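Milestone M4 deliverable, item 7.
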Amino acid sequence: MFNLKDYIEYEKGNLPLIISVPHGGMLECKDIPKRETGILGIDKGTIELARDLIEKMENIAEKFSLGGKEPSYIVSSVRRNKIDLNRPEEEAYNISSPLACQIYRYYHEKILQFVMENLKTFHYSLLIDIHGFESHKRPQGYRDVDIILGTDNLKTMFSTPVPKKNWNKNFRGKIINKFLELNIPIAPGRQRREEYVLTGGFTVLRYGASQIPNSQAIQIEFSDRIRYIDEDLKKRTVQSLAELLYDELVDRKTS
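Output delivered:
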C-alpha cells in the first residue's frame, strides 16, 4: 500500500489562498515509468520559492498582529518526467502506472477540496500556480522578462469577459504595475507591444473562474534569474508578491 503523502505535501491554511507547485519535485519514483512525450524538465527552485513566499506572508501577518494566518499549499515531490500535474490526465503520466494515477488524482482532489472549502468559508478562492522558465530558452524577438502571468486573457480570473481597457483594473493588474515600478520585467506588461505570454496551463484553467465562479487562478512563471541565480532579485520579488497577496486578501476581507 502506497502512502500518497510521501509524494504530495500539503497543508490546509486559514486564508482564501492556495499555492501549488507541480514541477519542482526531485523524487525519482522508480516504480513509475517515465513519460515519453512532452516537457520533462524540473522547474528548479520553485518549491523553495513557494516556501519563501509562505514564510514572508506569515511574517507580514505577524507584523500586523495577525499571526497564524497562512495560505493552503500543495507541492509535488515527484519528478516531472514521471508525472506532469499541469496536464490533463490522459497526457500526464504513463497509463500503465497505477501509482502515477493515484498521485495525479490525489493532487487534483486536494486542490479542488481547498477551493471548495475556501468558497464555503470566504465565498472566494485564489490559486497561485508556481512555475519556472529558463531565460535563454525564450523565443527570439520578444522582450526579455523575469515573470510571466498566465490567466488566459483573464478567463481564469473572471467568469464573464473583461473589456480590454479594464484588463489592468484587477489583481493581475496590481501585480503587473508593482513589478514594472520595481523595474522587474513582467509579461504581459506592454499592451502596445507583442509579447511572448502564456495562457496558463491545465491547473489554472480547470480551477479558475471560467469553470468555478469566484475561484480565481493565476499561473506565475519565474525566470531562472529569480529562482536560483540572483538571490537579491529573488528576495525582492518574493517579498513584493507576498505584500501584494496579503493586501489583496485583506482588501477582500474588509470590502
